[in-house]
## 1
Amino acid sequence: MAEKEDNGIEKPRVGVFICHCGSNIGGLIDCKKLAEYAGTLPDVVHFEDNLYTCSENGLNAIKNAIKEHDLNRVVVASCTPRTHEPLFRECIAEEGLNEYLFNFVNIRDQCTWVHMKDPEGAYAKAQDLVRMGAAKATKLEALEKVSVDINPAALVIGGGVAGMSAALNLNNQGFTTHLIEKEDQLGGRLRSLHKLFPHDLDAATLLNEIKGNVEKASNLTLYTSATLKEVDGFVGNYDVVIDQGGSEVKLTVGAIIVAVGASLFVPKDLYGYDGRTRVTQQELETKMKNNDINANNVIMIQCVGSRNDERPYCSSVCCMTALTNALIIKEKDPNTNVTILFRDLYTPGTDYEETYRKAREKGVLFIRYSLEREPVVEEDHVKVYNEYIGEEMIVPYDLLVLSTPLIANDDNKALAQLLKVPLEANKFFLEAHVKLRPNDFATDGVFIGGAAKWPVDITEAITQGYAAASRASTILSHESIEVEGATSHLPELNKSLCTGCEVCIKVCPYKAIIKNEDDEIEIIQAVCKGCGVCGATCSQQAIVIRHFTNEQILSEIYAYGGRAV
Amino acid sequence: MSFEPKILGFLCNWCSYAGADLAGVSRIQYPPNMRVIRVMCSGRVDPMFIFQALQQGIDGVFVMGCHPGDCHYLEGNYEAEKKFDMTVKFLKMIDLDNRIRLDWVSASEGVRFGQVVSDFIDHIRELGPSPVSGENPDENLLIKLMAMEVAAGTDRMRALVGRERKLIEEENAYGELVPEEKFNEIFDSAIHDEYIRARILLSLNKDPKSVKDLALEIEIDPSEILENILILKGRAQVDMQEIVGITPIYMRT
Ligand code: FES
C-alpha cells in the first residue's frame, strides 16, 4: 500500500504516460525525452512512452504500472479528454483506482497538430502542460458518483408527429407515457399538410393511423389543450405540473421529451401576401385538399423570409414542398403553367432528386433569382431578374405561392426556462452536442426530437421522435442510475463559513442549490451539473467545485508560473 | 533573443476547448505560447485565478467561453463576464488590464480559435514582458496585485458581482430594479475602498504602522486611511496597538 503522509492522506504516486499517437505526436516531439522529463517532476514515480496509449498494449501498460509501482494517480498525455477520457478512466477503474484519479494532458490536438512548424516550441509547451497536468494530478481526489432511483414514466411535450412517434415508442416498450398537446387535438403541423413527399402519401391517412395507435396505446395517457406549468426535480424524478384547461395535473416522471415542433412563418408585408391569390404553401395545400384551385398560371417563390440576414437558415422542407405541390398541380392539369423562382434548390438523396427531375420533365419552369435582386410582385405578374440569362423576365400569375420557412414557436423561450435548457440563435432548442448527443439536452433526463430543434420533414420528425424515445429509454429502463461525481459541494467543515447570503442560489442555473428546512444551504448533487459558477461566486469561498477545486486549478497555475508560493 | 510571451488560457470544456481541439483536427497553425487550463464553464474562472497568474509573472491571461446564449450551462458565460469586468476594473488601476482578455469561441470555430489566440499573443508581444515577470519583478506592483486579489476576494465584492445581473436585470428584495449607472457607482466605489483596505491589511501584516506611514506607503490621503482603518476596526481586522507620543499605531488583529 502507498505510504500515508502525516495527515493520513495517501501520498500521491503519479504515473505519467506519454503517447506518441503513431507519428501524430511522436513525429514532431521527442516523446521519450518528454517521459523522462515527467520522471523528474514531484511525486511522479513512474513514466513511460507508448506508441498508442489507448491501444490494448497501452492500456495494459497502465494497468501493469498501477500494480507494479503502486500508482494512485495516472496522467496520460495524448489527444483530448473530450474523446478519450472515458476510456482511460475506465481503464484505471478496472485496476481498482477511483476513476477521478486520472488526469488528461492534451499534447496532440492543442499542441503537435497546431505547432507543426515549431517543434521546439511544441516541445516546450508539452513540457509545461505535462508539468501542470502532473501537478493537478497530485491534488486529485477520489469522488463517488451518486445513485438516483428512476421513475419508469415519461412525459412527451407536443402531440405532433415527432411527439406521437416518441410517445408510441415508449408506450410500446412498456413505459408509462404522458403525452401533452397544447391544441385541442393531436397532429401538429401534419394536420395542415396535404400530400407528403417523396411518395405523395396522404397526410390525413398517416395522421389517422398514428392517432389511432395513440388512442389504442395501453400505457399512454393523452392530455389535449394542456401545457407544462411547472417542473422540479432531476433525472429520474421530475415532478411536473400540467395545466389542462385551467385544472392542474401532477405527475412524476423519469424523463421528459421536448417535441413541440415549429411554426410556419407568415409573410405579412412580403410580396403582397393576402392569403387569397397570394398564399403560403400551407394555404395552397388547404386549397388542394378542398379542390379549390383553378389557376392557369402558378408562380412559387422560394426562400421567402429565409436565408437572409434576419433568418439566415435554410428551412430544409420548402424546396421539396414546392416541387411536390407543383407536380400535383401539373398532374391534375398539364396545361397549368407552374414557375418556381428559386435561389438554390436543395433535394438531397435519390427520392428527392427524382422529384426534382420529374418536375422538370413535366414542364415546371425554374428561374433562378438572387438575394440582391429579389422578384417584384405586381398585380398579375412578377418581374424577375433571371440570373442565368442575365435578363429581366415578366411572368404572369393568377396564383402566387410563397414558400416560407418554419420558425421557432413563440413559447419556446418560456418552455426552455421551465426546463432549464438552451435555445440557439433562431430560438430553436439546442441539443447537448450536434454529433455526440444530437437528441439530448445537457440536462440529464431531458431529450429533444423533431422540428423543435430544427426544421425537419415528416420522415425526419418520426425518426427523431424514435431517437428521442430511445435515448429516454436508456434511462427509464434502469431502476437507478449514477450521476456525475464532479459536482459542487459544501463540505461539512465549510458550513460554518456560510453566511446565508444566497448568491449561490441566485447564480445556479439548475436550482441545484436550496435552503433546506434547517435554513442551511444544501447542494443537491443529482441536480448539479458541475459548471462551477457557484464556487467562483460564493462570497465566503465556502463552496468546493469537485475535480476543479481552487487548489487543483491553482496548482496548475503555479506549475506553469513556477514561482514559489 | 526576442520576447516570447508566457500566456495562460482558461477554456470552457464545451465550446472554446472544443474549438481548440477543432483547430487541431483542422491543422490550423498558431504560435505555441499559450498553456491551457480546462474548466467546465468560463463561469468557473474565479478572479483569484487571474490575479494569481499575474503574480506568477505570466504575461497574459486569456479567458474563453461559449458565445453569449450558447453556454452549456445556460448563463455561465454571463457570470464569467461580470467577474472578468471586475478584474479589469481592478487591473486598470495599475495598467495591467490590457494583459487579460475575454472572448467567445464556439466548438465549430477552429479557425477563429487560432486567430484570436494569435492576436492575443501578438498583442502581448507588443506590450512586452509583464512588469512583474522575470528575475526582478516590480515588487511594488506585486503588492498592489496581491491587494487586488484580497479586495476582489472580500465577501462584499464577491456578493456584489454575484448579484450584479439579478440586481440590474431583475429586481432587488424590494421589487425594484437598480439602474445600471447607479450600480456601477456603488461598484466602483466598492472597488476603490476594498482595494485601499486590502493595502492597509497587507501592510499591517508585516508590521504595525501609523496612519501617516500607511498614507505614505499607499500614496493616498491620510484622512482616507483613517476612515478605512475605522471600518477595518469595525470588521475586527485591525486594532490599535499603542500610542507613541500622540500617534496611534495600528496592527492586525
Ligand atoms: S460552458 Fe462554455 S461558457 Fe459555460
## 2
Amino acid sequence: MIRVNSLSKNFNNLLAVDQVSFEVQQGEILGFLGPNGAGKTTTMKMLTCFIPPSSGTAEICGFSILNDPLQVRTQIGYLPESAPSYDEMLVGEFLRFVAEVRGYSGIEMKRRVGMVIEKTSLREVENQMIDTLSKGYRQRTCLAQALIHDPPVLILDEPTDGLDPNQKHEVRSLIKDMSEERTILISTHILEEVDAVCTRAMIIANGHVVGYGTSDELLSQSLYRNSITLCLRNADPRKLLDEFNQLDFVYSVENVPDSREGMVTMRLFPKNKETISCQLEQYLCTKNITFEHFSVDRGRLDEVFRELTTVS
Amino acid sequence: MFIKGFFPILNRELLAYFRSPVAYVFIIIFLTANAGCTFMLGNFYDSQQASLEIFFLFHPWLYLFLVPAVGMRLWAEERRSGTAELLLTFPVRLTTTVFAKFSAAWLFIGISLLLTFPMIWTVHYLGDPDNGPIITGYLGSFLMAGSYLAIASLTSALTKNQVISFILSVIICLMLVLSGWGVLSETLNTVFPVWISDLVGQFSFTTHFDAIRRGVVDIRDFIYFISIIVIVLMLNVVILESHKAS
Ligand SMILES: Nc1ncnc2c1ncn2[C@@H]1O[C@H](COP(=O)(O)OP(=O)(O)O)[C@@H](O)[C@H]1O
Ligand SMILES: [Mg+2]
C-alpha cells in the first residue's frame, strides 16, 4: 500500500507539490484528479523514486522512498505519462527486456511475457516494431511493461489518455480486474473515470489537495446534489415558481429553458441538499399536478471539480 | 548488486545500435577516415615501415569527432524520448545503468576498430612486423576511445540537446589531446616551471597514447585510461543523480 506524508516538490521557485498526504490501501483504486499542471505527474515521479522530494516522504509497502529506492521500485509497476518505450524494438523484445532487467530469465521470463501479452491483448502486435504501433497499442505495451513483475502497487499516469472510447473501456476494465489484490493510484483529468474505476478520488490543484473522498462524497458537495428536475406539459411557469417557492423543503426554484413546444422544465433545489423526492411527489399528488418527467440529480462532478480547482 | 540488470541493458543498447542505419554509416565513415588518414595523410607506403605506428598516429584526432558522435545520444536520447523515466525506475542501480550503457557504446566502437583488421594483413604483406606493438596499439586505442566515450556520456547527461552535447565533449576531449602537444608544453615552459607543463602533459591522452603507440609498454599508461573512464563515469552518475534533484 501507499502512505504519503506531507510530500513537497520545488522546481526553482515553483511549488509544484505542496505538503500532499494521503493513503491508499490494498484493493483500493485512488483516482488522482486535477487540472493540467496541478502536480499529479510530479507526485507520481516522486513515488517511483524518479525524482527526490524537496521535503516529506512516502512509503510503498513499508519501504521508504528516501532510504530504500531499489526496494520501492520492485514493488511498483509504473506507467509514465507519455507511455514511453523503445521505438526500435519489437513489442515482444521490449517486454522480454523489461522482464530481464527485473531479474527473470528462461522459462519464467517467457511465462511472464506471455502472461502480460494475454492480459493486455498484445498478441497480434507481438512481432511488430514499436514505432509502427498505434497510440492504443503503445499505451498497452507500456502498461504491459508495468505488470510484468506482478507488482503489488500500480502507479498509472493518465492510462487512458488519447485512447478511443472502446480502448478506454478495455483499459478501465483491465485496471478494475487487477484491483483486488493490488493498490492502485491512477491520475486522470477525465471525470467520468472516477465513477468508472475508482473507489476513491483525490482532487489536487496547484500542488494542494483540495478534495478527497468517494465519488458520492465528492458529489454531495455539488450545488445540484439532490436537485429535482421536473418537466410539465402546458403549465404556467410563473404560477409554478410561486407555488414551489412556498414549500418549506425547497430552497430555490428555477425555470430551465426548454425548447420543446408546450413544455415547462423546473429545477428545485432542496434545503440543505436533502432528499425531497418523496415529499415533492406527495405534494404534486395532492395538488393534482401531472408531470412528464421527474429526475433526481446525484450531483455534478465537473461542477465540484471546477469549484474546488478554480477558487485559489 | 552491481551486476543485476547490467547485461539486459547492455544487450538492449547494442541491439539498438545495430537496428539503426546510423551505426552502419558510422562504421563506414570510421573505416574510410582511418584508411584516408593512414594512406594519404600519413604516407603509409612511403614510410617504409612494417608497423602500425602511422595508423595509430591519427586515432586521437579521429576519435575527437567520431566518438562524441556515438556518445552524444547515450543519455540525451533517453531523456528526449521519455524512456529515462522507465530505465531509471527499474530496480537497478544508477551506476549499473551508466556502466552498461557505456559498455554497449564502447563495444560498438571496439567492433568498428576490429574491422580495421585488413591493416594488419597489409603490414604483414609488406614486411615482417612485430606483433607485440600491434596488439598493445589496438588495446591502447580501444582504451583511449573509452576515455573519449566516457566524456561524451557525461556531456550527454548534461543536456537534452545532442548537438550541444557533441560540441561540449569535442571541446573537453580537444583540451585533453592538446595538453600533451609539444608546442603547448614549450609555451608553458617559457612562463612556468617545467613541472607545470609536465603535470599538464600527464593529463593528456596524447602523452599516454604516444608511448603505447610506439610499443613502449608501461602499465601506468593503461591505468591512466582506465582511471579516466571510471572517474568520468562516476561523475556521470553524480550528474544524473543531481539532475533528478533539480
Ligand atoms: N522538471 C520540471 N522543471 C520545472 N517545472 C516543472 C518540472 N516538471 C513539472 N514542472 C511544473 O510543475 C507543475 C506540475 O506539473 P505536473 O506534475 O506535470 O502536473 P500534472 O501532471 O498534474 O499535469 C507544472 O506547473 C509544471 O510546469
Ligand atoms: Mg501529468
## 3
Amino acid sequence: MARIWVPPRPLSRRALLGAGGLTLGGLFLPSPLAAAVTGAQRRFVFVFCPGGWDQSMVFAPVFSSEVDRDFGDAPASAGGIPYVDSEARPSVRRFFEAWAARTCVVNGWNVPSVAHEVCTRLTMTGTVTASQDDWVSIVANGAGPEVPMPNVLLDGPLFPNLYPTASVRLGTNGQLSALLTGEASARSTLRANAPSASSEALSDALLRRRLDRYTQRHLVGTGATVGAATRIALDRAEVLRGYADELEYRSEDALTAGVTTILACFELGLARTATLAYGTGGNGAWDTHSDNRVQDTLYEALFAALCDLCDGLDASPGSHGGTLLDETCIVVLSEMGRTPLYNSAAGKDHWPYTSALFIGSGVRGGQVVGEYADDLTGQPIDIATGAPSASGEVLYPGHLGATILALADIDPGPWVPEGSGRTIEAVLE
Amino acid sequence: MVTLVLLLGCTADRAPQTGLLPLGQSALARRMSIDLRGILPTTEELRSAESAGADSLIDGWLADPHFEAHLVDALAEDWLVRADELKLEADEFGVDIDAYTFARSFANEPTRLMARIAAEDRPWTETVTADWTMANHTLAEILPLEFEDPADPAEWRVARYTDGRPAGGVVMTSGLWLRYSTTLFNYNRGRAAALAQYLLCVDIASRPVAFVAFPGTSSIEQESAVHTEPTCIACHASLDSLAGTLFGFWPFEDEDGVEVVRYHPERERYGEILTGVSPAYFGTPVTSAAQLGPLIANDPRFSMCTAQRTAARLWGRQPADDEYAKVVALQQALTTGGFSMKALLRAVLATEDYRVGSLAENAEDAVVDRTRTVRVLSTTTLASAVEDLTGFRWIWEQADELDGDVTGYRVLLGGADGNTVRSQNPTPTVSHVVAMQRLAELAGAYVAEADLAAARGDRRLIGTTVDDAALAPDDEALAAELIAVHRRMLGVTPDADERAELGELYGAVASTEGSEAGWAAVVSTLLRDPAFWTY
C-alpha cells in the first residue's frame, strides 16, 4: 500500500473537547502524578543555526596557534563544562553557570561536507537523499493524533518524506494565527465581505459532509491519503482556533518571540516538538565569510534565548510531577562549523567539524562528549564514555540522529543506515 | 486476481497489466486544462471533452495565452527561483520598487524566456542558446539590456543584453544568477551545481558522501584537497571546471549590485587564476563561454532531463529508476519533434501515468506506492485557477500572497520557498486547510458580489443560467444554477444529495443574509472541498 503518509488514528473530537472546554489527550498536559518520562513521552525543542556557527567562539576552548580568535576570548568552565567566555557574549556565561548541570556539549562531530545544502540535509537526516525524513519529523510523528501539532514549526529546515503532516507551520509573520482568527482576510487589496459566523458554521458542516463523500469516492491511492489528511487537519484546526493568540509568531521579534510561543505551546499541550531557527535567509546569518565578529551578536542572542527557554520550562509544571524541563530535551544544531583561521576578509569559511548541544530531559549533563585537536579537527571517541579514544569513532550526523531518536525511544535502526552512526550512549542519562 | 479484474470489465486499453485505471474524459480534460493552462476547463470545454474526448482540446489549449503564463509559474516552482530574499535588494540599484516586485522580476526572467520559447514552439534548445531574453520595466531599469520593440505594450517583452555577454539562453540571464548567487569563497560552485541539476538532472550535491575525515585545516588547504583527494575529486572535478565557465558573472565585489548583475566578458578566464582550474564542460575544454550553450544543447542529458522534469511535473512525482524506458520514449518525442516542448507535452499527456485516475486491485505494490491518482493544486496554480473562476487574486501590499512567504501563505499551502522548504508538500496540513478556508471565503464573496451586479453575459461563475441570480431559496431555477456552478468548479454534475445540501446551505444563508451571502457560502464551500483543489 501507499506509504506516502502513515495516517494515525483519526482524531476523535470527543477526545479533544473534554467536558467544560478543551482538554487535550493528556499525553502532553500537566498531571499531578509524579513519574519519570519515557522517551515516548519526551518533548523536544530543536534550535537550528543556519550558515555554520563558529564552534571556537563557545564550545571549543582550544587556545592554540592554529586557531584565530578575538582578544576578548578567555577559557572558562562551569559545572564541569569548559567553554569560551567573552565580555561580548555575557549570556553564554549566564547559560553555562545556570544550566551546565543539565547540558551535554558534543564536540568535534563531522558533517562531512562544506556545502550548505548538503550539510543541512546531512545534519537533519543523516543522508543526502530525499527519501529520508528528518529527525524532527520522525520524532514528531510518534506524538499521536491527540496532539494538534506534533511538531510546531516556527522556522527552520525540514525534510519530511513519510511524515509530511507531522509539522504545523506558523509562518514567520503571524500567518497561521491570522488565518485562524480570520484577520488574514482583511489583508487583501481586493476587498470582500467576510462570512457571518452562522454562515461559516454551515459551510464548515457541509464541507465535512462533502469530505466524507470525497473519501468514499477515493478509497485507495492518493485521494484516500488526501481525504484522511484533510480530516485530521480540519480537526486540528478546530482545536487550534482557540489558541490563535498563542500561535502568533513573528520571526522579526527574534528568538524571544519564538521562546514565548514554544513555551505556550508546551504548557497548553498543543505540541510535542518545536522547531526554531535563528538567522534564516540566504545561506543563513551564521555564514560569516566576512566579519566573523557578527557571531558575537548571534551567540549572545542565542544563549539569552536558551536561558529564557530553560528558565521558562523549569518554571512550568510538567505532566509527570516534575517541571517541563524534566520532560523536554533541547537540541541545538548548526549545519557546519567555521575554519580555525580568519580569511582575508576577517571572516571564517566552512568547516566540517562542529558542535551540538543537548539540554534537559534524558541528557547526562555537566559534561562534554567528544574533543577537538589543536587544529580544531574532531577526534575519535569512545561513544560509551564520550572520552577521546584512538580506537574509537569519529562522530557523524548519523550519531546525532541515532542519539535524538534514542532519546525518543525510537529504534534508530530503520533510520540510520549501518555504518553511518550509532547512538552516543555517553550523552544519555 | 488478474482474471477477477478482467471479469470486472477492464478492457485491454485500460492496461490491467499495470493496474493503472484511467480517468474519465471530463476529469481528464480538467487535469489537462490545469496542467497546460493553470485554469479549469469551461463548461463548454467539458461538454466537448465528453462528446469528442479530452484529447480534442489539447491543441487549442497549447495555443491559449494561459499556456505561456502557466508555464512561467510551473517552471518557477520547478527551478525554485522565486526566493523571497535575494542576495541584493532594490535600493542597491537606486530604484524605488517594493521588495516583492524586485525579487519576482529577477526570478521570472529565466522562466519567462523558457515559457516564450515553448509558447512560440521554438526548439527547446534555444532555452540554452538564445541571444535574447525576456524583461519587464523593472529589469530594464536595472539591467544592461534593451527592449527589442520599445513600443510593445506587453509587460514582459523580448530584450537583448548590451554588456557583451554571449548567447546562452537562461544560462546567460542575470535573473538566474542573482537567485543562484555565489560567494567569494564559493567560486561559482553553487551556480554550477544548479546548472547541472536543472538542465542536466545531474544532482552533484546528492551524490553519496563518503564518510571520511575531511582533510585540511583552513579553507586554503580545503581548496587544495578539492583537487587532490579522491573523495573530493569525485564531485569537484566536474563541478569546479563547470563553475569555471561562469566567471563572466564573477563579481569582484559581491555586495555591489551593478558588479553582480553585469556580465564581464574579460573575466571569463579569471577563474583559472583564482582556482587553478581550467573551464570545461564535463571533460570538454571551454575556451569561451559562448561554447557553453551549444555544449548543453547537444548533451543527450539535456533532452533526457527536459523529458524527466516535464514527466515529473505532469505525473506529480519523479519517474522511478525502473521507468527509464518511459523517459527515453519521451525524450525521443522531444528530439524527433524538433525539440518542441509542445510535442513533449503531448507525449506526456498520452502516457498512462498521466491519465491514471485509480488503481486496479492487481496493481503491484511498487506501482501503488509511486502512483499519484490525484494531484494537489500547487500554490501558483491554485492562484491562477481561483482567479480565472472568481476574478479574485490575493494581493497584499503588491505581493501575491499565494506566491510568497514574507506576509503570504505559500509554504503554509504546501509550496516550496526555495530556502528552508525545497519541495512541495503533497499532503494537506492544518495550515493548508485554514489558508484554503480564507482564500475560499474571500474569493467566494468577491465573485458573488461581482456576478450579482453584472449583466448576464459578463458573469464569471454565478448566474449563467438565469437573468437574475438573486434567487429566492424556493425558486425553481435554483437547482439548475447550483448544478452549473458545481459543474464549472468541480468538473462533475452534483448528485441529488449534493444538490439538496447545496440548496439547503444557500437557502439558510440567503434567507437571513441575502442571496449574495448565500452564493458566497456555496462557492466558498466548494472551493474548500478537496474535489476542487485536487485534480
